[in-house]
């Protein structure tokens, strides 16, 4: 009797294992349990889902609030993320500069102004280095001072009506001189660093801007329009491409168009290996502006970190709404550019004008 019972139980066990442990049976069992949980425990399930959604919304709300808070004051949340920051402020000039997401800071800037005696025009410069900081450092140290010395001579000669120079000719001469000095110094130590060069001379009635590379200047006129003060020197531009090809060089695309597959701009200071090939040149483009005619409100001089995330028009509009801030909007727009994902160093200089001819 016991033997028959054990045999029957063994048979039942094999039958249960055969049917219950089949993949199809297990799948149907899981579906049944899920449906049972949903229909008979709806409140608990919905509570869990709602709590999760609320948590996500709360996090998104905090991020949105931080992103939309564009009037940054005091210590900013992201300040801790910047390995280094630089600030400069006078009565009408403000600069804010961050290292940002780069391992090194290669941006430089300089302001030389004689607002009391007005013996020479104010000098403003932004230099965005690459391949190290040596070239940008050299340009910042040498060029503004060389310009100041030459401008002092020019102003004295002009008073005697003996000067045959002009602001554009002085800018071109000194930029080319500094490039030659830089090449001599850096090539001696095989330093391949280079830099952009964006320099503005501001007198009572005239603004003169020289540019080499892809830093950029923009002016806000009396009507709030964006007026370009410079044009980027990029390898893909027809004029630059023809010049590079004529010199025996080439451009190729690797995320961006590059000269000889190396440099993402077609003109610079430094970069001695490319200068030796004559495919990259230091020649500045220079533009002059009549302040009485434009009656400008302010101008922006910035490294390309800003222009990667802002158009000329958007930057002018953004700064115009924030001129009452301590940094005239320079700090706000730098941080906003960082928020938008700029991977580069970012330097922004804002110069305010007053009255018809502008005070500096």
TrEMBL record:
<keyword id="KW-0812">Transmembrane</keyword>
<dbReference type="InterPro" id="IPR000222">
    <property type="entry name" value="PP2C_BS"/>
</dbReference>
<comment type="similarity">
    <text>Belongs to the PP2C family.</text>
</comment>
<keyword id="KW-0464">Manganese</keyword>
<feature type="domain" description="PPM-type phosphatase">
    <location>
        <begin position="92"/>
        <end position="353"/>
    </location>
</feature>
<protein>
    <recommendedName>
        <fullName>Protein phosphatase 1L</fullName>
        <ecNumber>3.1.3.16</ecNumber>
    </recommendedName>
</protein>
<keyword id="KW-0378">Hydrolase</keyword>
<keyword id="KW-0904">Protein phosphatase</keyword>
<keyword id="KW-0472">Membrane</keyword>
<keyword id="KW-1133">Transmembrane helix</keyword>
<dbReference type="GO" id="GO:0016020">
    <property type="term" value="C:membrane"/>
</dbReference>
<comment type="function">
    <text>Acts as a suppressor of the SAPK signaling pathways by associating with and dephosphorylating MAP3K7/TAK1 and MAP3K5, and by attenuating the association between MAP3K7/TAK1 and MAP2K4 or MAP2K6.</text>
</comment>
<dbReference type="GO" id="GO:0004722">
    <property type="term" value="F:protein serine/threonine phosphatase activity"/>
</dbReference>
<dbReference type="Pfam" id="PF00481">
    <property type="entry name" value="PP2C"/>
</dbReference>
<dbReference type="GO" id="GO:0046872">
    <property type="term" value="F:metal ion binding"/>
</dbReference>
<dbReference type="InterPro" id="IPR015655">
    <property type="entry name" value="PP2C"/>
</dbReference>
<keyword id="KW-0479">Metal-binding</keyword>
<dbReference type="InterPro" id="IPR036457">
    <property type="entry name" value="PPM-type-like_dom_sf"/>
</dbReference>
<keyword id="KW-0460">Magnesium</keyword>
<dbReference type="InterPro" id="IPR001932">
    <property type="entry name" value="PPM-type_phosphatase-like_dom"/>
</dbReference>
């Amino acid at each position: 009797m016991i033997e028959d019972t054990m045999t029957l139980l063994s048979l039942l066990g094999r039958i249960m294992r055969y049917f219950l442990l089949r993949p199809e049976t297990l799948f149907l069992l899981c579906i049944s349990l899920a449906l049972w949980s949903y229909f008979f425990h709806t409140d608990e399930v919905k509570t869990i889902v709602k709590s999760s959604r609320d948590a996500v919304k709360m996090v998104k709300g905090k991020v949105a609030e931080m992103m939309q808070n564009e009037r940054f004051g005091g210590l900013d949340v992201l300040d801790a993320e910047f390995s280094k920051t630089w600030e400069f402020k006078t009565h009408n000039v403000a600069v804010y500069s961050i290292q940002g997401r780069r391992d090194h800071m290669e941006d430089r800037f300089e302001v030389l102004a004689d607002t009391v005696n007005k013996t020479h025009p104010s000098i403003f410069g932004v230099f965005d280095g690459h391949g190290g900081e040596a070239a940008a450092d050299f340009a910042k140290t040498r060029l503004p001072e060389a310009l100041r010395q030459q401008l002092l001579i020019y102003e004295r000669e002009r008073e005697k009506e003996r000067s045959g120079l002009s602001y554009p000719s002085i800018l071109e001469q000194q930029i080319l001189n500094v490039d030659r000095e830089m090449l001599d110094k850096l090539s001696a130590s095989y330093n391949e660093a280079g830099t952009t060069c964006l320099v503005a001379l501001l007198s009572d009635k005239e603004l003169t801007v020289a540019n080499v590379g892809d830093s950029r200047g923009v002016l806000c006129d009396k009507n709030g329009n964006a007026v370009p003060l410079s044009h980027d020197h990029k390898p893909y531009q027809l004029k630059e491409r023809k010049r590079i090809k004529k010199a025996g060089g080439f451009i190729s695309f690797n995320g961006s168009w590059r000269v000889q597959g190396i440099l993402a701009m077609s003109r610079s200071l430094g970069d001695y290996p490319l200068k030796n090939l004559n495919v990259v040149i230091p020649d500045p483009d220079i533009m002059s502006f009549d302040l009485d005619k434009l009656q400008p409100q302010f101008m922006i001089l910035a490294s390309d970190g800003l222009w990667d995330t802002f158009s000329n028009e958007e930057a002018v509009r953004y700064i115009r709404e924030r001129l009452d801030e301590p940094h005239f909007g320079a700090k706000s727009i730098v941080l906003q550019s960082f928020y938008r994902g700029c991977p580069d160093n970012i330097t922004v200089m804002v110069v305010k004008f007053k009255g018809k001819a502008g005070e500096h």
